[in-house]
Structures are given as C-alpha cells and as structure tokens.
Amino acid sequence: MNRTLKGLLLVWVFLGVWEFISRSKLIDPLLLPPPSSVLFRGWVLFSKGELWGHIGASLWRVLLGFLLAIVFSLPLGVFLGLYPKVADYFDPLFQLFRPLAPPAWIPLAILWFGIGDRAAIFIIFVGTVFSMLLGIMGATKRVNKDLVKVGLTLGADWREAVFYIVLPSIAPFVFTQLRIGIALSWMCVVASEMVAVQRGIGFMMIEARNLFRTEDILLGMGVVGGLGYGMDLLIRRIEEKALKWTKGLMVHELFGSDRNL
Q1: How many other CB atoms sit within 10 Å of the CB of residue 66?
Q2: Which of 112, 129, 162, 208 has the fewest other C-beta atoms within 10 Å?
Q3: Are 55 and 23 members of one domain?
Q4: How far apart are CA 255 and CA 245, in angstroms?
C-alpha cells in the first residue's frame, strides 16, 4: 500500500471516528457536528452559489499576495545570498520583522488600506515574504562557489552564472520555500478576512461563529485545508518537472555539452 492510499485510509478512519463521536453524542453535536452534516451544509452552500464567491475571493487574495512575496523575495534573496556582506546590514531588520505574527499587522493594514482586498493582500505578503526571503538567502549562501568560479572561467558572465548555476543549485530550496509560503498564505488570508474584508472564507467563518453555525466553521476549515493541500501538490508536480529541466539546461547551455548531470 503506497503512502497516498495509507493517507486516504487515515482520513477515512478519522472521519469515521468523528462521525461516531458526534452521532453518539459523546460531544454535543451543536459544538461538533458530524462530518456528514458538514458535507451536506457544503452541498447546500455550493448549490446556492454562496460558497463559490467566498472561495473565489480568498483564492484571489492568496494568489496575489503569494505572487508578490515571490517577486520580492526571490531576486532579493539571491542578491543578498551572493553578497553576504550586504546581507549583514539587512539581517537585523529582517530578524526584527520575521517573528511578528500576521495578525499583528492587521490594525496597521486597516489604517493604511482600509477594509478590503488591499489590506488582506498586504497581510498575506508580510506574513509570507520574510520567511521565504531568509530561506532563499540562506540557500544561496550555501551554493558551491567553485561551480560559479568554473563558469566564470569558462566565459560565462554574472547573469549566466546566476541563471545557469545559482538558480538550478538552489531550486530544491526555493520550491521548499514556495510550499511553506503557500501554507502561510492560507493562514494569513483566514486571519485577515475575519476583520479586514466583507467576503471570503475567513469572513464566512467569523459570521458563522456569530450565528453559532458550527457546520459553516468546520466547512471553512475543510475548504482551506483542501485548497492548501491542492496547491501544495501542484507546486510539488511543478518541482518534479522544473528540476529535470534545469538539471539538463545547466550543463548544455553553460558548458556546451549534450551530457546531462
């Protein structure tokens, strides 16, 4: 039995135990409704089109905030990793902001951007970017400098050295940071939507709390978990293909060889 089937089996066991506990009233069903009730509630909201709107709003914010974090952290992380003396000046600033939990930024985000998408996207960005930036910077610092020197000796310029040696070398670490970043993005969007917007999964969950609709809260948690897991799988599939591509390209383009590593 492969790991995927084992994981699915564990999920079914978990849902079965949960259903039994709720149906047998070992825990008040008002506080912990059975998964069958949560799924039925999800079907109702899907049929009405309400859930699609919340999912679309959250997905848009996550993607935009996450992409902004990538655009900022990847080039800056590589640059600071290649020039550690410059990075030493910025490191205290990064370390100062990194421990701040995303909810700590919510009051400022609302003051700066008001209630709406911009505040939520900003919270996703700041909640994700520092972790990704420091991870990419650390990976770049560990690149084998001898490979870079060999490339420069063979006629490559710095741009080629970065694209064909440094980036392929740190690619596995970059994809790891992307997976961490997408998980952080979903955590941030739920927190931000509870106070900074009028639509989204987080907004749906906080409204459900006010109305004591436990099914909606659990449904929102399940949707976030499912979307986060799906996007993590997508990044892993892209990683499998991208790393094969960079592995062959580095040798062929830089050293003029048809051999793969």
Answers
A1: 25
A2: 112
A3: no
A4: 16
Classified as helix, coil or strand, 142 is coil
Name residue 116's amino acid: G
Give the rounded distance of the alpha carbon of 178 from its chain centre.
Answer: 6
pTM of the model: 0.83
Structure tokens at 12: 């079914």
Say if residues 251 and 259 touch (Cβ distance below 8 Å).
Answer: yes
151 within 8 A of 162, measured Cβ to Cβ: no
User: Looking at the structure, do residues 110 and 17 belong to the same domain, yes or no?
Assistant: no
Domain assignment present for residue 123? The answer is yes
In degrees, rounded to 5, the angle at the alpha carbon of residue 194 between the alpha carbons of residues 114 and 176 is 100
- Split at pLDDT 50, 70, 90, the class of 251 is very low
Tell me the pLDDT tens digit for each residue of 114-137: 888 899 999 999 999 999 999 999
Give residue 94's identity as a one-letter amino acid code.
F
Q: DSSP assignment, residue 165?
A: I
User: How many angstroms separate the CA atoms of 115 and 113, rounded?
Assistant: 7
Tell me which residue has tokens 């909606």: 216
What is the C-alpha to C-alpha distance for residues 163 and 253, in angstroms, rounded to an integer?
10
What's the CA gap between 154 and 172, in Å, rounded? 25
Count the Cβ atoms, other than its own, within 10 Å of residue 126. 20
* pLDDT class of 1 with cuts at 50, 70, 90: low
Residue ranges of E strands in the chain: none
Q: CA 58, CA 188: separation in Å to the nearest integer?
A: 10
Q: What is the CA radius of gyration of the chain?
A: 23
